[in-house]
């Protein structure tokens, strides 16, 4: 774990890197990627409306069982991610291929999407996983969420065979949704 270090990623107008990532254009010169703190919880909850889960994630970070990461621009939290260091599939508890570091979220505030910031947050999560000696990262994606499926696939995740599961029934929605596990092998 990083002990609360702040990671600074420079941002320059109209600049792309060799992987064709469009970096966020701003009058400010940097996006900060850092560990979340207790004081960030209310801002994170404004973004995802999951207060209890955010508190649980903060507690897991304090216990060294995960890392809660925020992306900040000009003092405003514009995104976050959470990675569990060890996770076991709720849906398939006996499957070894679904055990390991688990990416819970890669969230970027809507007006900052499609600028490469989600990819920057994901890269930080991947670095955290590597620093903990692991070689893969697992996540679960709602299959009807085309944006999320596309994001994960574009960033090297592949759907795990025979890993689809039924999602909890949604309020006022009689249709059942489905999710699936995706994995990315972290090769240097």
Structural features, described:
The protein is an alpha+beta fold and 188 residues long. The protein has a domain at 6-134: 3-Layer(aba) Sandwich (Aminopeptidase), CATH 3.40.630. The chain has helices spanning 41-48, 51-62, 117-131, 146-154; strands at 6-10, 30-35, 66-73, 76-87, 100-108, 136-142, 158-159, 165-166, 178-185. It has a 5-stranded antiparallel sheet with strand order 1-2-3-4-5, with helices on both faces. Strands 6, 7, 8 and 9 form a 4-stranded antiparallel sheet that branches. A hairpin with a 2-residue loop joins strand 3 and strand 4. The longest helix is centred in the middle third of the chain and has 15 residues, at 117-131.
Quick rundown:
The chain is an alpha+beta fold. It contains four helices and nine strands, in the order ββααβββαβαβββ. It has a domain of 129 residues: Gcn5-related N-acetyltransferase (GNAT) (Aminopeptidase, 3-Layer(aba) Sandwich), CATH 3.40.630.
């Amino acid at each position: 774990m990083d002990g609360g270090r702040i990671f600074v990623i420079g941002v320059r107008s109209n600049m792309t890197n060799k992987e064709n990532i469009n970096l966020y254009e701003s009058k400010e010169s940097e996006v900060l990627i850092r560990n979340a703190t207790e004081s960030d919880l209310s801002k994170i909850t404004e973004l995802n409306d999951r207060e209890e889960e955010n508190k649980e994630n903060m507690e897991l970070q304090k216990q060294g069982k995960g890392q809660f990461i925020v992306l900040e621009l000009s003092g405003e939290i514009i995104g976050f991610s959470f990675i569990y260091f060890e996770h076991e599939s709720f849906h398939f508890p006996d499957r070894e291929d679904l055990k390991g570091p688990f990416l819970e979220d890669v969230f970027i505030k809507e007006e900052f999407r499609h600028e490469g910031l989600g990819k920057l947050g994901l890269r930080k999560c991947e670095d955290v996983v590597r620093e903990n000696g692991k070689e893969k990262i697992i996540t679960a994606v709602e299959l009807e969420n085309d944006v999320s499926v596309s994001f994960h696939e574009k960033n090297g995740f592949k759907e795990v065979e025979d890993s689809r599961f039924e999602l909890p029934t949604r309020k006022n929605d009689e249709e059942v949704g489905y999710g699936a596990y995706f994995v990315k092998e972290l090769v240097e």
